[in-house]
Task: inverse folding
């Protein structure tokens, strides 16, 4: 499998996982969503809003939008239902970006705004790898926090396997996405 194909699949996994987790979080009251919990960020609200903010920052870099770190100035924290809608829009941008990549485009350098450290050129494939790792890292923390609530955390880790195709089919259909098996 090419790296470009892997990133196309990873982008869809990212959208599916975010949606499943945010649908579960939407079953919580706003107080439950914002309740202080043990993790890197102290609540589901802060953790999942952080994921969205970082997605928007990296998408700006990948699309060479030029906003850079200033993107964080305009981001307002959202409640779970609004966060789900906004995250899905971000995930669809990421899918579209990944769908447009090939091996040559993945190796190109793009400028990244690193604040006091200045502009740093990074490879697109490295930025995508980091972005997906970042999402997985914080989704795992949110998943663990959700386990401490009355809402059972959803299964998120078998997206790439044929074994799980039937279990994710309805979710993917609702999102208008194809599963990994359809991208071969």
Result:
């Amino acid at each position: 499998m090419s790296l470009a194909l892997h990133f196309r699949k990873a982008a869809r996994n990212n959208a599916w996982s975010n949606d499943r987790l945010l649908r579960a979080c939407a079953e919580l009251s706003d107080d439950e969503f914002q309740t202080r919990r043990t993790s890197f960020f102290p609540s589901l609200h802060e953790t999942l809003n952080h994921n969205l903010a970082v997605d928007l920052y990296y998408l700006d870099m990948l699309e060479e939008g030029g906003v850079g770190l200033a993107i964080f100035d305009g981001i307002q924290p959202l409640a779970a239902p609004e966060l789900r809608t906004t995250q899905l829009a971000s995930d669809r941008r990421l899918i579209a970006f990944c769908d447009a990549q090939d091996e040559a485009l993945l190796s190109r350098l793009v400028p990244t705004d690193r604040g006091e450290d200045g502009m740093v050129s990074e490879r697109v494939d490295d930025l995508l790898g980091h972005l997906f790792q970042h999402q997985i890292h914080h989704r795992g923390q949110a998943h663990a926090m959700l386990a401490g609530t009355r809402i059972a955390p959803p299964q998120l880790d078998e997206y790439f396997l044929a074994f799980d195709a039937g279990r994710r089919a309805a979710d993917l259909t609702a999102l208008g996405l194809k599963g990994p098996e359809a991208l071969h």
User: Anything to note?
Assistant: The first strand starts at residue 109 and ends at 113. The first helix runs from residue 3 to 25. The chain has seven helices and two strands.
